[in-house]
Amino acid sequence: QVQLVQSGAEVMKPGASVKVSCKASGFSFTDNYMHWIRQAPGQGLEWMGIINPKDSVTTYAQKFQGRIAMTWDTSTSTVYIELSSLRYEDAAVYFCAREPGHNTLNFDFWGQGTPVTVSS
Amino acid sequence: EIVLTQSPGILALSPGERATLSCRAGQSVSSRSLAWYQQRPGQAPRLLIYGASSRAAGIPDRFSGSGSGSDFTLTISRLEPEDFAVYYCQLHGGSYYTFGQGTKLEIK
């Protein structure tokens, strides 16, 4: 069955970088888009970006441009998000999510979420 | 960027009642690009409806989606205890994806 298993909680200092992983199983990794979405405490969902493991194309939300990178490792079917220059307002739960196929425009499976705390 | 506005912010109903949740886009959008999610406390969101009106796999038929243009609706025909949660609509806007701010469905 489809599973997205994320790495564990992180506690980071302001200005540092954090890298979160999402290991996929139960489906063809390169036949789907993968997304990262975050949720600050008590807040709504915020889309961060998309990666297509098949052709290396990434698109990031404008507010994160310059300090976000999404990568993948096809050999382990794992996608990563790295967010640099962390601010207190980056504290959130970070989710990976699958867009089934290409251009289906929704997220049908989600990881369990990775809490990121930013504290000095 | 197109803004999605959900209403009401909080909806208080009793089990067995009918729930109607609204999602309004700032301009007309393709129905294909509109989806709905349910999020229970401490859990990841779950896809309910895609393409404005198609139920995702395993979603009970008491959930239905409708609408076109800029106005979309999620209807839960008869509320079960497990349906009390937060609901989000989501849009693909070309080069970005965006979510509404959510409607909290709580027990009256």
What's the total count of β strands of chain B? Answer: 11
Biggest sheet character of chain A: 7 strands, mixed
Give the fraction of residues assigned to helices of chain A: under 10%
Unreliable stretches covering 5 or more consecutive residues of chain A: none
Radius of gyration of chain A: 14 Å
Taking the alpha carbons of the first and last residues of chain A, their distance comes to 40 Å
Shape of chain A: globular
Give the distance, in angstroms, between the N- and C-terminal Cα atoms of chain B.
36 Å
Helix content of chain B: under 10%
Q: Evaluate the radius of gyration of chain B.
A: 13 Å
Strand content of chain A: over 45%
Quantity of strands of chain A, as a count: 11
The succession of helices and strands of chain A, N to C, reads EEEEEEEEEEE
Low-pLDDT windows of residues of chain B: none
**Overall SS class of chain B:** mainly beta
Account of the protein in words:
The complex is a heterodimer of chains A (120) and B (108). Helices cover 0% and strands 49% of the residues of chain A. Chain A is an all-beta fold and 120 residues long. Chain A is globular and about 40 Å long. The N and C termini of chain A lie far apart (40 Å). The model of chain A has no long low-confidence stretch (mean pLDDT 95). Chain B has strands at 4-7, 10-13, 19-25, 34-39, 46-50, 54-55, 63-68, 71-76, 86-92, 97-99, 103-107. Chain B contains no helices and eleven strands. The A-B interface holds A 35, 44-47, 50, 59, 61-62, 95, 97, 104-108, 110-113 and B 32-33, 35, 37, 39, 44-47, 50-51, 56-57, 88, 90, 92, 95-102.
List keywords for this structure.
heterodimer, A: 120 residues, mainly beta, 4-stranded antiparallel β-sheet, 11 strands, B: 108 residues, 51% strand
